[in-house]
Design a protein that fits this description.
heterodimer
């Protein structure tokens, strides 16, 4: 079980890295777009869509990393007043419901993605990129979310992890 | 089942699901899927993935991660500290000096970051210990920062306003401009209270417990070159936005790039690992917000498909109550929602329902954005889910929650007063966008 949990954590950390790279790329491409458009008066073609899809992709791929780091905001009102057992029950319920959501979206997005792949759907713009490449982030992200939620549930049941841990303030960079 | 009955069932189910502590994004998603499949049939499953993804397929959304990068670059670098000391050096002569300069620092920082908890954390880390060291009571120190931090979502650039703009298709440039004067007004109201409270505290004890520090003009000027470039970037972004020269996404992207460059150059943070850390932290926050937006897209799709949005709007407009009574009811609703839910979630869930009602009652959607934002600000400093309260608690664990609340309560009343003033004089919010965009 340790092996599974550690491997999933490693995959989620990798997701964080990929999502950060996508965000970096988005910033650089916006700069490129602005320079081309406003400095050289050129019309831009692929940049707008590239930025949109890299950030959307970054969001779905970064999602498991944020889950690992407990960064998804939630309402911890009821858990706050409960003891360990109560918290555990709520954390398990919340994890199972989230798992249900991620699995459904994963299942449906695989069909949606395959449809774009089989029919060679494109963006239909000047860039005309294949949609299956741009949409791949959704099934991929949701698949890793499923793995991460299973790891979370296992960690909760085996007391490797406390339910609803306290948030930690980020340290400054100097 | 009637759409309104389904609506009541859906709201109850959503609250129940949220109460177990599920991440907001997945809670919204689960409810949207369950209701869609139960009431519209499994056939709807064909459009689910596309709708979920479509929530993020918009160029305006790009500005959210970009403004987050801007904010985190400033918040996690020594820029926040410099901003704080600059204000302290310039405002120390004002009665209640340090409290006033803390509020000023919060307002300025709000303009740089667009996020309330970030403002609270960045200014509070220096502000609270400094205020306490100079004799200000715990309540005032904590309350000031908790309240000052809320200005983050009102003073532009504001993530909350962008989300409102996207969900209601309102011009983000106009929304930003509308936030400026109400933001300054609230800062002013906060300062007046802070000065009065400090004066009362000193008078009660019949001696001055609060120390005033003196700074030379040299000290005042030497700090400016370090903070001016950041303020210039924000001013530039806003100028470009309101001038319609570039889109919010382009302006914020360039702003994010320059803020990263400035942090590297001014504070000599050349280590790529540290810059990477800033971007990674931004990715984390933006992923959290964008997931909520994607899920809320699905949620709104369900509401609209089940005819709930339209039925609520029809019901509210058919009530024929006085428009101000309606506005009062909406305010109470937002206030209560704000007690429990984070601002982004409330806006994406309610804005599409509220907007037709607001417009039918003859209110300006840009003005309403300001009212809604102030309501969200109140929610940030009221329990049980006041995010800022917990940030303060994290910074100074020895100040108890009731002490923070005692300190922030009067500021909350200032916000309510702010809403009343804005209802009487809506021009405070609407004049600037109308003036600038009618040219």
């Amino acid at each position: 079980m340790d092996f599974y949990i550690k491997s999933v954590h490693r995959i989620s950390l990798l997701c964080g890295t990929v999502a950060t790279i996508l965000l970096c790329l988005a910033i650089l491409v916006i700069m490129d777009m602005v320079i081309e458009r406003y400095v050289f008066n050129l019309s831009t073609s692929w940049q707008t869509e590239f930025v949109i899809y890299s950030l959307a992709g970054g969001t779905f791929i970064g999602c498991p990393y944020v889950l690992l780091k407990k960064g998804h905001v939630n309402v911890e009102l009821l858990p706050h007043y409960l003891g360990y057992n109560g918290k555990l029950v709520l954390a398990l319920m919340s994890s199972f419901l989230s798992l249900l959501f991620c699995s459904t979206i994963f299942y449906l997005s695989v069909h949606w993605w395959y449809d774009a792949y089989a029919n060679n759907h494109t963006t239909g713009t000047i860039w005309n990129a294949y949609l299956w490449k741009l949409h791949f982030s959704l099934p991929l992200g949701m698949f890793i979310m499923i793995l991460q939620y299973i790891a979370d549930i296992l960690s909760l049941i085996t007391k490797r992890e406390m339910p609803f841990p306290e948030a930690v303030l980020e340290e400054n960079i100097s | 089942m009637e759409p309104l009955q389904i609506g009541i069932l859906l709201v109850t189910a959503t609250l129940l699901v949220f109460s177990i502590g599920i991440p907001v994004a997945f809670g919204l998603g689960v409810i949207a899927l369950v209701f869609l499949f139960i009431f519209e049939g499994i056939g709807m499953s064909r459009v689910v993935a596309d709708t979920f993804f479509a929530g993020l397929e918009e160029f305006t959304i790009v500005s959210i991660p970009m403004f987050i990068v801007m904010g985190i670059a400033v918040a996690s670098s020594p820029a926040g500290k410099d901003l704080y000391s600059a204000l302290d050096r310039w405002l120390n002569r004002v009665p209640g000096g340090l409290v006033v300069s803390n509020l000023g620092a919060c307002a300025l920082f709000a303009a740089l970051s667009g996020s309330s908890p970030a403002t609270c954390a960045a200014i509070g880390k220096m502000g609270i210990p400094e205020m306490r060291a100079r004799g200000y009571p715990k309540e005032i120190s904590a309350g000031t920062i908790a309240a000052g931090g809320t200005l983050g979502i009102l003073i532009p650039p504001s993530i909350t306003m962008i989300v409102y703009g996207i969900s209601t298709e309102t011009s983000i440039g106009q929304l930003f401009m509308a936030g400026i004067f109400p933001g300054l007004m609230l800062t002013g109201l906060f300062m007046v209270w802070a000065i009065f409270k400090t004066w009362m505290t000193n008078k009660d004890k019949n001696l001055s417990t609060v120390e005033f520090k003196n700074f030379t003009w040299k000290e005042r000027f030497e700090i400016l070159p370090r903070i001016a470039p950041f303020l210039l970037v924000v001013a530039g972004v806003l100028y470009v936005l309101y001038g319609g020269i570039a889109t919010p996404s382009e302006a914020s992207g360039v702003g994010a790039f320059f803020c990263l460059v400035l942090v590297a150059v001014i504070y000599k943070i050349y280590n790529p690992v540290k810059i990477w850390k800033i971007i990674k932290e931004s990715m984390k926050e933006s992923t959290m917000i964008l997931m909520i937006i994607a899920a809320s897209y699905l949620f709104s799709f369900t509401l609209s498909n089940l005819y709930i949005t339209q039925s609520v709007a029809e019901l509210m407009t058919s009530l024929e109550v006085n428009r101000w009574v309606l506005m009062f009811m909406i305010n109470i609703f937002l206030l209560v929602a704000g007690f429990f839910l984070p601002p982004v979630a409330i806006i994406v869930m309610t804005a599409p329902i509220l907007l037709p009602i607001i417009e039918a009652a003859g209110f300006d959607p840009v003005w309403f954005a300001v009212i809604l934002t102030i309501n969200m600000e109140i929610g940030l400093i009221t329990p049980p889910v006041g995010l800022n309260l917990y940030v303060i608690k994290g910074i100074s664990p020895d100040i108890t929650l009731p002490e923070i609340l005692r300190g922030s309560f009067p500021f909350m009343l200032c916000m309510v007063l702010g809403i009343v003033i804005l209802c009487i004089f809506p021009e405070i919010a609407t004049w600037l966008p109308q003036y600038l965009f009618s040219k």
